[in-house]
């Protein structure tokens, strides 16, 4: 089967098309196979490829197959889902460390990672959702803010932030979104009460202070601004950090919550049903063939994309 290997830690040029034997039914106990149609390109993929997480991925050394999010068709039946069912999910890379990611035609997955994709949701849209929605939902769980609280979401134009804005607003939080300039009105449609453009930390703090002069009860830091955005938070507020290297030191009684997403099939099923019902909006920026993976990584690294880049397999 066709796969994309990371041949060494480095820039997008280290990504190479390769051929590996296709997994066979039952060859790894507890795992089933999915024939992929689409794989999302995540920030974590870029960072693993570049070697930033070499410590976290431990004994795993190149060559390995990258990729976290996937959408495709079940090759082996699982309880409640027949062969051929359209499914999506993500591989919890940091727990698995098999080096068998989703930039591949066939992956082995645990049945408990899999949610069915509703008919109305395309494979490409489904592949943009699993890791991002798990991150947004886990972050909101950890915030545990009562309805009516104010929540600042940074990186609100991107996939994780956009979902956090919508889920928080649906849960009754008053959302202040820090967005890519020009996206403010869209974020308000998605549920943000206020939206301000991104900028330097000082500029963002000044803009947030204008719309939330009493400061906010919580921060969901989708843009990984870390310590720089802490002054926007009230004493005893709560800060959700979603990257291990951007966890600010606790101060003023602030509770800092590091978040790492783990698969939750039941929740993903509900989320994809909301996407199908247009109650939750995800966004795909580009759809590119698997063979164009190096270009996909270059685009993702070049900065603002209005949504997830998805590889078509
Ligand atoms: N903990 C976990 O389990 C987990 C899982 C998935 C993702 N993550 C992390 O979550 C983050 C968001 O994921 P994503 O897929 O949505 O990423 P993404 O597409 O890279 O989005 C990053 C967002 O941050 C914004 N941003 C970057 N620098 C900024 C700055 N200085 N000021 C304001 N905004 C800034 C970007 O703005 P522009 O749009 O203007 O460029 C973009 O909207 C990633 O860093 C990823 O590593 C964590």
From TrEMBL:
Which Pfam families does the protein's record reference?
A: ADH_N, ADH_zinc_N_2
As one GO molecular function, the record gives: oxidoreductase activity, acting on NAD(P)H
Species this chain originates from: Streptomyces venezuelae (strain ATCC 10712 / CBS 650.69 / DSM 40230 / JCM 4526 / NBRC 13096 / PD 04745)
Q: Where is the Enoyl reductase (ER) domain?
A: 10-311
What keywords does the record list, in alphabetical order? NADP, Oxidoreductase
Give the protein name, as stated in the record.
Answer: Zinc-binding alcohol dehydrogenase
The yes or no answer to whether the keyword Nucleotide-binding is present is: no
User: Which domain of life does this protein belong to?
Assistant: Bacteria
């Amino acid at each position: 089967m066709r796969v994309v290997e990371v041949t060494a830690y480095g820039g997008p040029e280290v990504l190479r098309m390769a051929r590996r034997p296709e997994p066979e039914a039952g060859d790894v106990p507890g795992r089933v196979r999915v024939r992929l149609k689409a794989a999302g390109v995540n920030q974590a993929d870029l960072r693993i490829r570049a070697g930033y997480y070499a410590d976290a991925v431990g004994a795993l050394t190149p060559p390995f197959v990258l990729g976290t999010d996937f959408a495709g068709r079940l090759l082996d039946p699982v309880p409640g889902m027949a062969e051929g069912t359209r499914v999506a999910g993500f591989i919890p890379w940091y727990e698995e460390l098999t080096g068998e990611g989703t930039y591949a035609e066939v992956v082995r997955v645990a049945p408990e990672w899999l949610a069915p994709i509703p008919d109305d949701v395309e494979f490409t849209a489904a592949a943009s959702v699993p890791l991002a929605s798990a991150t947004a939902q886990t972050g909101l769980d950890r915030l545990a803010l009562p309805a009516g609280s104010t929540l600042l979401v940074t990186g609100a134009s991107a996939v994780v932030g956009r979902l956090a804005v919508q889920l928080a607003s649906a849960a009754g939080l008053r959302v202040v979104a820090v967005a890519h300039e020009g996206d403010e009105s869209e974020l308000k449609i998605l549920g943000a009460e206020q939206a301000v453009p991104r900028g330097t930390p000082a500029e963002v703090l000044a803009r947030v202070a204008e719309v939330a002069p009493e400061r906010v009860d919580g921060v969901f830091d989708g843009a990984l601004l870390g310590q720089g955005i802490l002054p926007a938070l009230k004493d005893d507020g709560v800060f959700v950090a979603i990257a291990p290297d951007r966890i600010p030191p606790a101060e003023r009684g602030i509770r800092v919550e590091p978040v790492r997403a783990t698969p939750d099939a039941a929740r993903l099923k509900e989320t994809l049903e909301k996407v199908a019902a247009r109650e939750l909006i995800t966004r795909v920026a580009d759809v590119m063939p698997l063979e164009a993976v190096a270009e996909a990584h270059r685009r993702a690294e070049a900065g603002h994309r209005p949504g997830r880049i998805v590889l078509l397999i």
